[in-house]
Amino acid sequence: MTRVFLGLGSNIEPREEHIRRAVLMIKNHPRITLLKCSSLYHTEPVGYKEQDWFLNAVVSCDTSLGPLALLQETKKMEAGLMRERTVRWGPRTIDIDLVLYGQEEISLPELVVPHPRGFQRAFVLVPLAEITGDQVYRGKTPRELLSELGEHETVEYYGQLHIED
């Protein structure tokens, strides 16, 4: 089993419900064990600014899936939640990003891990820090990486995500 961290985001209503359903899909997957789910954070969009703010969270899981198989499964989950890819960094019902796959570094055309912008985004680092504490990646904790960002996008605590089967 490999410990993985997935970033979740939604800015199309009902945002919290989309994230909740994605977490339930992850939890109910036969080859993924959900371990922890961060709080929800209200975050301003990055890149394409002309859209509603996001809700973001990070989950930790153990999986027996390889990285490409996990990517395929998360894409199926996004499709099941009606994710449409029309505008880069645009509005979405759900986004499920593979932020970390163990301590592995992967560089393939279809997958880069750690997520290529994950350590540059407060909306990833804040919830990641919440559930990892002092765990180290590339010699630093998520809190240390966050402190190095300086000025960054707004990330506000929104509340707990309540998961029921």
Task: Give structural notes.
The model has no long low-confidence stretch (mean pLDDT 88). The protein has helices at residues 15-28, 67-80, 122-132, 142-148, and strands spanning 2-10, 32-37, 40-43, 54-63, 95-101, 106-108, 111-113, 155-159. The two termini are 24 Å apart. The strands form two sheets. Strands 1, 2, 3, 4, 5 and 8 form a six-stranded antiparallel beta sheet that branches. It has 165 residues and is of the alpha+beta class. It has a single domain (2-159), classed as Alpha-Beta Plaits (2-Layer Sandwich), CATH 3.30.70. The chain is globular. 28% of the residues lie in helices and 28% in strands. The longest helix has 14 residues, at 15-28. It contains four helices and eight strands, in the order βαβββαβββααβ.
Write a compact overview of the structure shown:
With 165 residues, the chain is of the alpha+beta class.
Return the domain count. 1
* Beta-strand proportion: 25-35%
H/E element order: EHEEEHEEEHHE
CATH topology: Alpha-Beta Plaits
Summarize the biggest pleated sheet: 6 strands, antiparallel
